[in-house]
Structure to design on (280 residues):
């Protein structure tokens, strides 16, 4: 399996350019088609109020959305051209709820590249809940790129977060094209459990054997901690091991439970310092 159809959700934030650069490199590495998408989100105005607005105001809002989309398109085309890669590309712009429209377009791609939420505020074309909603609703894997830092290449040294769940299994399978190209892969289990549905006699050994049958040599490691949460330990291990990509499953519980409890998925998405490949 290869990534042959990549989608990048663009915006007008400070990290948009470097994120396009990374998507272009991935498209080049996999000889894939690259699609840029910008979603203009209309202002949240009740219909009863919209009916009372002057036509000029509505036209002004529409023109502002169109101009933002054109700026995003110019940035996309500029960065792709500057990459020097011979890529096949296309551009799409849509109007509506950013997460809903991005999820819809993602269903026709192999992988979507999106940005981490910027704590300084959502830029035009972005949404504060985009990563969570897209990962949960699109049915495709997502590569979430931190808002800070430059990531010219990802997937040289990969840390796989393994907890023997359906979501982790899905993430590993979806990430095979990246894992097959990696110089090093580490399968990490944090606080591994035993018994039925657990990790087996040697945590991570079974999935490492599966990866070996795909030609992927993976080191196996496990850590136990009572002081840090699983999410913080995972981020700490990624830093200590020099990982430039984390592969993990998302939303092991119901999304309602994750939102109420402040689950590991949401914490990871807020704290990442390297790109994270997630599947649900």
């Amino acid at each position: 399996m290869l990534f042959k159809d990549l989608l990048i959700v663009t915006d007008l934030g400070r990290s948009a350019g470097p994120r396009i650069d990374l998507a272009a490199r991935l498209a080049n590495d996999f000889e894939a088609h690259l699609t840029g998408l910008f979603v203009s989100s209309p202002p949240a105005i009740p219909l009863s109020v919209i009916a009372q607005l002057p036509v000029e105001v509505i036209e002004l809002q529409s023109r502002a959305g169109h101009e933002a989309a054109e700026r995003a398109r110019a940035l996309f085309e500029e960065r792709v051209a500057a990459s020097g890669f011979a890529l096949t590309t296309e551009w799409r712009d849509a109007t509506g709820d950013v997460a809903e429209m991005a999820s819809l377009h993602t269903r026709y791609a192999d992988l979507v590249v999106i940005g981490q939420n910027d704590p300084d505020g959502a830029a035009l074309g972005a949404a504060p809940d985009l990563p969570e909603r897209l990962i949960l609703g699109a049915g495709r894997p997502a590569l979430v790129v931190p808002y800070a830092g430059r990531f010219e290449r990802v997937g040289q040294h990969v840390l796989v977060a393994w907890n023997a769940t359906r979501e982790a299994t899905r993430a590993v399978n979806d990430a095979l094209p990246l894992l097959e190209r990696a110089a090093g892969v580490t399968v990490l289990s944090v606080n591994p459990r035993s018994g039925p549905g657990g990790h087996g006699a040697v945590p991570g050994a079974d999935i490492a054997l599966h990866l070996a049958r795909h030609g992927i040599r993976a080191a196996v490691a496990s850590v136990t901690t009572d002081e840090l949460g699983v999410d913080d330990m995972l981020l700490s291990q990624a830093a200590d091991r020099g990982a430039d990509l984390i592969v993990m499953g998302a939303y092991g519980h119901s999304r309602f439970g994750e939102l109420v409890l402040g689950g590991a998925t949401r914490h990871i998405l807020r704290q990442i310092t390297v790109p994270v490949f997630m599947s649900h």
